[in-house]
Amino acid sequence: MKVAIFSTQSYDRQFFDQVNAAYGHNLLYLEPALTAKTAILAAGCTAVCVFVNDVVDKATLHVLHESGVTTLVLRCAGFNQVDLETAKSLHINVFRVPSYSPEAVAEHAVAMIMTLNRKTHKAYNRIREGNFSLERLIGFNLHGKKVGLIGLGQIGLAFAKIMQGFGTEVYAYDPVVKDVPSYIRMTDYDTLISSAAIISIHCPLNEQTRHMVNKESFVKMKDGVMLINTSRGAILDSNAAIEALKQGKLGYLGIDVYEQEDKLFFRDLSESLIADEQILRLMSFPNVLITAHQGFFTTEALTEIAETTLQNLTDAESLRSNLNQL
Ligand code: NAI
After folding, report:
1. How far is CA 222 from the centre of its chain?
2. CATH 3.40.50.720 region(s) of the chain?
């Protein structure tokens, strides 16, 4: 199948080329993100491959449809960026990678907790400058602390397992999941956010979860709480987080995702003027750690993403040829 791969980075090319040796698809690598304006670049392709910040809205889908695209493969788990109704109406089959390495994201969330808590990033810089002082590097024991998870799917569960290993008390809120390991205590949203010392977000972004963690949530949280978001930026109201940080309510914030990340992440902007006032404010706090959507970024996850995506293209091809034979 000929597929236009939007938002290509060097590592996409590396892993897709490696895995594609066994699949033989025709891969067209494109650096721009997919939007209604760039969709025309897929002309001549029957499939399009997108990542988290590509815009697959109604307008984009219509351009793709007119250029003959019949298949959309997402090389990610979340699908909030896709207008599924329009895709269905245009008979564009949509595939995603529902599971690749939940441990990759869970371990990154733990890395954020450990960095914010034990300040290893600051210690590293100090030592390189010959500063061996321990002043202001004090952390806290994770052992015995209450950790609250919002969302207990694959990543939430992988994260819970690790947190149990640290000897924390693990609480979770998930409106769907019922059967859980005995060490996880299920609770409601308000109880979870008002009792946890560390809150970690692992639910998808949808209309119910957009700004789920907001001004009212911060009022209910414990003073000095640590909040980690490796899920999707818009689940957290960034303005409310900034206010909570200014008031000292939010003691630590670790975000691997950000509401306006599509204009920032996956790019080197070190020589550019950053116009986004919110991210600049967030970057200014000493107790905020930002990573640019790298939770998934492990060799195992990238290999699995490439394998599932290329298999999805093969499946789409057989689906189309079966339909044509009917
Ligand atoms: P999953 O589908 O296995 O689990 C999501 C869980 O959230 C489900 O159990 C669901 O019932 C629950 N949920 C749904 N609505 C909820 C609500 N209102 N409140 C609380 N829980 C709710 O998904 P998985 O694989 O665990 O991924 C979770 C999210 O992580 C994805 O949707 C994606 O946005 C994000 N993600 C981030 C990555 C990164 O690199 N930072 C990489 C992969 C995923």
Report:
1. 25
2. 2-100+298-317, 102-290
Model confidence pLDDT, tens digit, residues 140-179: 999 999 999 999 999 999 999 999 999 999 999 999 999 9
Cα(108)–Cα(114) distance, rounded to whole angstroms? 10
CATH number of 102-290: 3.40.50.720
Q: Please report the DSSP string for 124-192 in residue order.
A: HHHHHTT----TT------TT-EEEEE--SHHHHHHHHHHHHTTPEEEEE-SS-----TTEEE--HHHH
**What span, in angstroms and rounded, lies between the C-alpha atoms of 12 and 297?**
11
Cβ neighbours, 10 Å, residue 134: 9
Q: Does domain 2-100+298-317 have CATH number 3.40.640.10?
A: no
Which of 155, 206, 309 should be mutated for ligand 1, with most atoms under 8 A from CB? 155
Q: Are 235 and 260 in contact (CB under 8 A)?
A: no
Mutate to test the pocket of ligand 1, among 203, 228, 290 (most ligand atoms within 8 A of CB): 203
**Ligand 1 center to residue 48 CA distance, Å?**
24
Percentage of the chain exceeding pLDDT 90: 95
Q: Which atom of ligand 1 is nearest to the CA of 98?
A: 25
Cβ burial of 297 (10 Å; 0-12, 13-18, 19+) is middle
